[in-house]
Amino acid sequence: MFRSRELSPVELLEAIIARSDAVNAGINAFTETLFEEAMPAARDAASRYARDGDLPPLLGLPVATKEKHGIRGRTLSQGLVARQHERATENHPVVERILQSGGIIHARTTTPEFSCATVTHGPLWGVTRNPWNRQYSPGGSSGGAGAALAAGLTTLATASDIAGSTRLPASFTGNVGFKAPYGRIPGLAPLSADHYRGDGPMARTVADAALLANVMAGRHPGDHASLAYAPALAPSSGTGAGMRIALCIRLGNYPVAADVETNTRRVAAALRDAGAMVEEIELPWTSQNISRMMFTHFGYLLGPAMEDETAGSEGWLAPYTRRFMSDARQAAEQNRFLDGVRSETLLQAQLADAMAGFDALICPASAVAALEADGMYLDGIDANGERLEHYWQGHMTAPFNIANRCPVLAVPSGMADCGIPTGVQIVGHPFDDATVFRLGAAVEAVLPWAGGHPEDFSAPSSMSPY
Fold first, then answer.
1. Per the confidence metrics, is the pTM higher than 0.90?
2. What is the similarity comment for this entry (predicted)?
3. Backbone torsions φ then ψ of 279, nearest 5 degrees
4. E strands along 154-237, which residues?
5. What share of the chain is helix, strand, coil (3-state, %, to 5)?
6. Sign, Cα dihedral of 12, 13, 14, 16
7. Is residue 106 within a helix (H) or strand (E), and if so which, with residue range?
8. 385 to each of 111, 254, 256, 266, 388, how far by Cα in Å?
9. Which residues are catalytic?
10. Would you call 321 helix, strand, or coil by DSSP?
């Protein structure tokens, strides 16, 4: 539409600003808006389209960036009250590449403290709510990104993922989220060395997610682990006919809610009807063992980093942040680093064996259909008749951070009984990004969701817990 002059980048940004002014108060998706700085960039983009020529891939598109993706000269707090006035000295690599590609950063999105929760609330920014049903969370930690996309406040958004922080918000808000394989998209040192983590795109459609993933990907001098550029490819319009797909509902013993299972099987059935070969498999995992693996890993890297960053200001922290650091510390005391690596490599081998002969694996993103917007979950969570010790055990994303060379695309699968979306994960073989985007496009074709959106709203629904 920009190229044909049907729409101007200025008109699009004006519409997004008007939409944000009208509805963001009801969901609280932004930490700050950059509308004044964005408008001149939109005018410049409009001029460049008028001149044609060689145009960069994101030219004129508004992009909302996660607050942790620092912008030089702007605040970089990680959601911490004690650091709310600190400023970034450089652009995060994904910010750098968005700007180089003509994207217009018009807003920054909310997160929980240190991006260490799968709900999005904290003392600094309050509670972010799901546009589909504001009783519930958009998920976390990239909850502001998911909420902004679902509410029509941006066209694209950045996210990050160390235990599901891209895929869970995408699933809870009806969006598409990509957890790239480790190294595909450069991060910021020193935690770029953490092989669980990764930055990536969130968008409303598979093609949009691929567009932003292609911009983000490639080697960067600041990230020694970053890989050579390998495009995610523009998804085709195929239906997945001929593909061999493994379906795993529980990933071992995750207590999957009935509506989540129904929607996951609906995706599998639609692909089978379109000509894909779908076979149901089992995996020998337990959510308890995966939680132990995950927190052992956190106990040797992210946990100590958080303790260093918050030393002297512990009293300002949200309860979930203190719980995270305590769990990580305890796991490191109980397990050696080598114990964690042994468990991780066993899980990776089990996944490789299970996926042998298949193009990809499909499973739910979360066993629980929803989280309360202001929930702390310090005492665990009820999940399908079971009481889980840690609420993260209700999510099915962490195994693929442990097996983090596998690309994973989260796409919508339907609506939960509580009125918010559910999602499935499409898991590929190590570094096979193209297949997960191809299969994601097939799911989108056989179960189209583009154009679906929550009803309008304006006022917050309840008080903040802070």
1. yes
2. Belongs to the amidase family.
3. -125, 130
4. 156-160, 176-179, 199-203
5. 40, 15, 45
6. positive
7. strand 104-109
8. 30, 12, 10, 23, 10
9. 66, 141, 165
10. helix
Q: Could you state, in order of their start, the residue ranges of all structural domains in the chain? A: 9-446
Residue carrying structure tokens 């960069």? 56
Total length of the chain: 466
The beta strands (E) that lie in 250-312 are given as: 277-280
Does the domain made of 9-446 have the CATH classification 1.25.40.10? no
Local confidence band at 459 (pLDDT 50, 70, 90 cut-offs): very low
DSSP letter, residue 82: G
If one counts every other C-beta atom within 10 angstroms of the C-beta of residue 87, the result is: 13
- Those residues whose C-beta lies under 8 Å from the C-beta of residue 1, and which sit 6 or more positions away, are 7
**Both ends of the chain: CA-CA distance in Å?**
44
Q: Name the CA dihedral angle for 62, 209, 193, 93, rounded to a multiple of 10 degrees.
A: -30
Retrieve residue 23's tokens: 């509805």
CA 82 to chain centre: 26
Residue 40: C-alpha distances to residues 11, 13, 54, 388 (Å): 12, 11, 20, 51
Condensed to tens digits (0 to 9), the pLDDT of residues 123-152 reads 999 999 999 999 999 999 999 999 999 999
Spatial separation of the C-alpha atoms in residues 361 and 252, rounded to whole Å: 14
Distance (Å, whole) CA 353 – CA 20? 47
Q: What is the pLDDT of residues 81-126, one digit of tens each?
A: 999 999 999 999 999 999 999 999 999 999 999 999 999 999 999 9
Report the distance separating Cα 17 and Cα 35, nearest Å: 7
